[in-house]
Write a structure and sequence with these properties.
It is a single chain. With 313 residues, the protein is an alpha/beta fold. The chain has helices at 18-25, 87-103, 122-141, 158-166, 183-190, 200-207, 209-214, 226-241, 259-276, 282-288, 302-309; strands spanning 32-34, 59-66, 69-76, 107-112, 146-150, 169-173, 220-222. It has a seven-stranded mixed beta sheet, sandwiched between helices. It starts with 17 loop residues before the first helix and ends with a helix.
Length: 313
């Protein structure tokens, strides 16, 4: 068992390490790490390329308790290669999700912070992403909710952006970012005229937590506080576990994994393109949503933000 009790709750999720996020989210002293640093599971591809290795390969996995309920948890370490996914990193995440199908925890929590796949082991990383997605969908099909949490400095992009959108539900802070191609990739590929990755305000208006929440891509927007993430995760799981609800009613807090829900998602995306495809900035989309003073949204704290957009969500 890993003793994480010395790390406090109530701290910034954005600034925290992967291990301290686990500490703040789970019940005290409940975390049991799987395949930790002592197991020395390092990437076989990095050392031959002269790259540094990490004994946990940039991801911490294990089990614990959340408000007394058993959960499995994975936390990507943005401080190691930006949380990028390689062969071992992906295998640990896949194995955790496969373990969930057998153990039937109350939920799986994925603390996502990643720029995508490591270029140093691109093919292995891409295969790993596909295996993670397969295992994630199998976990959901087994009736186990998968909750994604996004709020780290590196955002959630590339293959892990796809993984995030495969989760049942997502929790994000204002500082969190979610997308497929990251700002730097867009600028490199399409030019600065298309997207200036150095315009940080533009980046957050485009892929930041508030905008993703307004578009309906994330279901929960919280303050940058680990305790806020914890409380929201508890509420989600408590609703799913409620004995007062019939099984089919318990997924109201979650996205349903059905053909009909997929078709509805495609319809929603088509409508979004029709309604906002001409917009060049998040503020233009917010204006099309008939939000008053849309240019002020980035400066609002979360309570004021909810009040400003309460008629649009």
């Amino acid at each position: 068992m890993s003793d994480l009790s010395g790390l406090r709750r109530g701290q910034s999720y954005y600034e925290a390490t992967a291990r301290s996020r686990i500490s703040g989210l789970l019940d005290s002293n409940s975390f049991q790490e799987l395949l930790g640093p002592a197991d020395r599971l390092t990437s076989p591809h990095l050392e031959p390329l002269g790259q540094p290795c990490s004994f946990n390969d940039g991801i911490i996995i294990g089990s614990g308790k959340l408000h007394g309920l058993s959960v499995l948890i994975a936390s990507q370490e943005g401080g190691f290669m930006g949380g990028a996914v390689g062969e071992v990193h992906g295998a640990k995440l896949t194995g955790l999700l496969e373990r969930a199908v057998n153990e039937k925890p109350a939920a799986v929590l994925l603390l996502l912070e990643s720029g995508g796949v490591r270029l140093h082991e691109a093919n292995a990383g891409l295969i790993a992403i596909s295996e993670v997605i397969r295992a994630l969908l199998s976990t959901r099909a087994a009736g186990i909710p998968v909750v994604g949490l996004i709020g780290g400095a590196n955002g959630c992009f590339g293959g892990m952006g796809i993984v995030a959108r495969c989760c049942d539900t997502l929790i994000i802070n204002e500082e969190g970012r979610l997308g497929l191609s990251g700002p730097d990739v867009i600028e490199t590929t399409m030019g600065v005229e298309e997207f200036d990755s150095n315009d940080r305000a533009l980046v957050w208006r485009t892929v930041g937590g508030k905008h993703r929440y307004l578009l309906g891509e994330v279901q929960h927007l919280v303050e940058d506080d680990i305790e806020a993430f914890r409380a929201t995760a508890i509420n989600i799981i408590d609703e799913v576990q409620s004995p007062c609800l019939e099984p089919l009613e318990r997924s109201s807090e979650l996205q349903k994994l059905t053909l009909e829900s997929l078709q509805q998602e495609h319809l929603d995306l088509s409508r979004r393109l029709e309604n906002y495809g001409h917009c060049q900035d998040g503020t233009e989309i917010w204006s099309e949503m008939c939000i008053d003073d849309p240019e002020k949204l980035p400066l609002m704290d979360i309570p004021r933000f909810f009040k400003a957009v309460e008629n649009n969500i």
